[in-house]
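TOKENISE THE FOLD
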Amino acid sequence: MMPFPLLFQSLNPCASVYCSETHCLTPLFKDLITNLGRHPEIFELIIISDSNSCFIDWGLQAHGLRSCFSRVFTNTAEWLSTERGRKLLRIEPYHDGDHGCDRCPVNLCKRSVLQRVIDEQLGSGYQGVFYLGDGLNDLCPSTIATAVLPRRGYSLQRALESQGLDAEVFVWESGLDVLAWIGKRTGALRVGPINTC
């Protein structure tokens, strides 16, 4: 495992912003987020990501999606200047200390974050937790979701094939697939949170 904090010396803030702004969303994913984000009374959208706050903020701002998400849980990042005028991206882990999960990297256990969000919302009328993901680090939080939506062809889908989850599983390729599934599945249900990273 990598020690924290991480310092990325070769990154230039302008180049990083460009990379983040041009990062491609899956087809119709922006439409999915925009449509769900228009209904905060029905859906709470959150991000739980092993990335970092700089890249996530830039990407959300670039795609005009920041207002769609109620909360973002990720590693904290900030740009620092060196004595030689170089920029360093300093990344601090989300968890400060042991999170108690053997399956997740030391910096973030997505399941523990999701469980805390669920516990905070008890009694709010939530009738389900839908979890969207694509990586192996999404397997741990999938174990506590009502429904898991793995991206087709990615490691989470393959990992779920060998797991015995109680959750409903729906494999998707585009935001339209997810939107159609949510529409059929929920009707007027109060659902939250939907993790999209």
